[in-house]
């Protein structure tokens, strides 16, 4: 039988190599109550196991379809690192995940997170996870578990990356998408007060030369610093989409989450080949930070709408007869919404006017 060498104490340890087991254990203890605050009745057990358990209440669905999504926060995390502020990026992570799920018509159920760091800082990570938990509470999603990986010797001490995976469910036959969009549908846009979590590589290239830039006003006359502006948390639109579905039912045809690819690259994903989406750019407000990016980087309008949301975080396609009910349902759910265009015969293009 093989056995470990009878090596005396005092040799190299895991912590000296760059990974602290004790710091990891401390972090898990810190977040237990925060994670528990996101629980739903379907959650079985708590964190600490090898996998999270979730009971799918099949009594609510005749023929359930499971929908999944995976995403991260991207280079917005670099702004958080420069500002040493991590309280909002967890909300961004949840938004990127659940707002993708509802585009299929799915109710988001649970998520898991993955955090990679150069060195575990329990206080910093607790702030990050508290933000994730806040996002989960906003949309009724359970934080079912996750993983924290300390990459000592590979990542810098203050490096951090976060990603997540989320699961939802929709009744088969009620999925949203291009197959349901028809001529004359109204397009309803949900307002986005900031960049959400997309386009930050370009935004940082234009706006941030040094850390000190983040502590200056975001633009002339701004009430916030550039760092505060860039760390505005993403609005989570999933509850508003579900509220619309509850009110107008089959009158909700599709939803496009405006993330990477901007307005043009995402709305096109919900168009059949025989229809165009006409969007009136003056029908919604574009926050000043987008104009600042244009001014300082001489970024063209064409480039802006294929990179950024420009003030539209989500676009839903609804039956024209249901448009007022849809707008009012979104507003009652806490999201500013307005009619921004319509679907017309065409070739599957997004037409901006």
Shape: globular
- State the separation between the terminal residues, measured CA to CA: 77 Å
Helix content: 25-40%
Radius of gyration: 22 Å
Report the CATH topology name of the largest domain: Phosphoribosyl-aminoimidazole Synthetase, Chain A, domain 2
Q: How many beta strands in the DSSP annotation?
A: 12
- Count of separate DSSP helical elements: 12
Structural class by sheet pairing and helices: alpha+beta
Taking the sheet with the most strands, its summary is: 6 strands, mixed
Query: What is the CATH architecture assignment of the largest domain?
Result: Alpha-Beta Complex
What is the N-to-C order of secondary-structure elements (H for helix, E for strand)? HHEEEHHEHEEEHHHEHEHHEHEE
What is the residue-averaged pLDDT? 93
User: For the largest beta sheet, what order do the strands appear in spatially?
Assistant: 8-10-7-11-9-12
- Name of the top-level CATH class of the largest domain: Alpha Beta
Low-confidence stretches: none
Number of domains: 2
CATH homology superfamily of the largest domain: PurM-like C-terminal domain
Percentage of β-strand residues: 15-25%
